[in-house]
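PROTEIN DATA CARD
Card holder: Phenylalanine--tRNA ligase alpha subunit
Chain length: 343
Origin: Sediminibacterium ginsengisoli
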Amino acid sequence: MEQLVQQMEAYKKEMAAFEGKTPEAVEAFRIKFLGTKGIVKDVMGGMKEVPNEQKKAFGLVLNEFKQFAEARYEELKAATATEGGEAAAGYDWSLPGDQIGVGTRHPLSIVRNQIVSIFRRLGFAVAEGPEIEDDWHNFGAMNLPEDHPARDMQDTFYISQNPDWLLRTHTSSVQARVMESQKPPIRVICPGRVYRNETVSARAHCFFHQVEGLYIDENVSFADLKQTLYFFVQEMFGKDVKVRFRPSYFPFTEPSAEMDISCLICGGDGCNICKHTGWVEILGSGMVHPKVLENFGIDPNKYTGFAFGMGVERITQLKYQVNDLRLYSQNDIRFLKQFTGAV
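Structure generated from the sequence above:
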C-alpha cells in the first residue's frame, strides 16, 4: 500500500507539471491518465492487493487521486479554450476572405434552358412527368402496341412485368399525360431525361436528355411545324444556318420528317461529324397521328397537331463542338470549367 501511495504522489507531480498548450496535448493528457488503459485506472486496479482492513482508508486516497487527475484535465482544457478564444477575439475581421470559385451550370442545363426560352417566346408551356412509366403512356398511347416492330428501335429498361413498368424511352410519355389531362388547344414542350439500353460510347449513352414539343389546335398544318422549327434553328444557331426536311417514319406522327441543319463544324464542306455529307440531323417531327388523338378522346376531324423531339446532347455537341457524349456525365472539372462564361 505504501508503494502505491508513493506512485500516486509521483503521478500528481507529473500532472501538475504537465503543460498542455494545444487541444492535441490536452487530449494526450486525458488518454495517458484518464483513458480506459490510463494510469488512474491502472492504479485503482491495485486495490485488490490491499488488505481488507485497509481498503476503506485506501479507497479514500484513490478517490482523491482520481479527482485530482480529472480536475487537472478540466483545468488544462479550459486554458486551451481561453487561449483559442483570445486568439479569435484578436482576429482582424476586416481582412479579405479566401476566394470562392465561381461555378457554372452544366452545359446540358445551359442548352436546355436556351431551348425552353426560345419555345416559351412562341407560347409553349413546360410540362414534366415521371421517369418511371407504365407501358401504356410510354408505348401504347403513342400508337406503339405490344407487337409493333418500331418498339425494337428503343431498347428498353423494364423494371417489372404484368403490369409493365419501365424507364421511359422518350418524353412522349409526358405528351400523353398532357393530352390525358387537358383539352385542346395544347401547346407544350417536354424536357427531361430518358433511358435506353445502349452501349456507352462517344456517340451514344444509356441515358440522355430530350426536349419534345406538342401543338394541337384547329387548323394546325405542316407549314406551322416548319415555321416553328425554322425559328428555333435560327435563334439557337444563327441566321446563316441552312435547314432541310427529309421524309421519315414515326408511329405517332403522319406524315413524318427528320430535320437537318448544315454542319456547324465544317460549314457544310464535309467532316467526320456530318459523315462528309455537310448535313447533321438534329430532330424528328411530324403531324400527330389521328390514332394518337383518338386515344385521348380528341376528335381528329376537328383538331390537328404537330410534334417534334430533339436530343439535348446533340444540340450541345453542335453548339459547343463537344466530340464525346461521355464527357457530359464524367464530372471532369476541366471540361465543366470551360462553360463558366456561358451561364
